[in-house]
Amino acid sequence: MLKVSGIIMAAGFSTRMGANKLFLTYQGTTFLERVIRLTRHLDLSERILVLSPENNQKVSFDSELKVVINEQAQLGQSGSVRLGTQAASGDGYLYLTVDQPLLTPELFVPLFKAYSKETIVFPVDRKQTPNSPIFFGSRFRSELLSVRGSAGGRLVRQRHQQAWRKIQVSEPERLLDVDTPVVYQQLVQRSWQKERK
To answer: Global pTM?
Structure first.
């Protein structure tokens, strides 16, 4: 059975949001708490959280979560990719962000079926646009350990299109990426409207 390391990328600076996304709330739970809770329901061999030093001082975690500190978060997402991958011992690596609060364990069912040491697996929306979360098999470990800049693993993904497994999920709206105050307000408003019904 494939051992999958779950890597939560949580060391960014939320510049477009203008507020720390880790501590934004949706339905009474912070974005960070939501993604950590989500990983508990996935078939992962280990769970790794990559944090900046500042955010590490603000939260406490359960003992099963391996916390890795990114001391150079200002240099871009690639640092978190490298650190998370370095800490991982699985046959593949599932990278999750904190800004997709609508993800559910059910969404991952078709994704996990395509995971292997040789594949790169990601969900797509109705326009076939690649989305997070993204999985890389261990075949790509050395490349992930050498990424630089703000692109993270995207350049590795682009170099290996033959390894892609694009998964059309049944509820693509759950892939929502909350990156700006406008999108966050839309999310909160939609939640409030649902509660009123």
So the answer is: 0.91
The DSSP secondary structure of 50-94, one letter per residue, reads EE-HHHHTT----TTEEEEE-TTGGG-HHHHHHHHHHH--SSEEE
Smallest CA-to-CA distance from 32 within 76, 65, 63, 4 is with 65
The pair phi, psi for residue 127, each rounded to 5°, is -95, 10
CATH number at residue 68: 3.90.550.10
Q: Supply the range of the domain harboring residue 114.
A: 4-196
Residue-wise pLDDT for 16-73, tens only, equals 665 688 889 999 999 999 999 999 999 999 999 999 888 776 677 777 899 999 887 7
Determine the Cα–Cα distance for residues 45 and 18; give it in Å rounded to an integer. 34
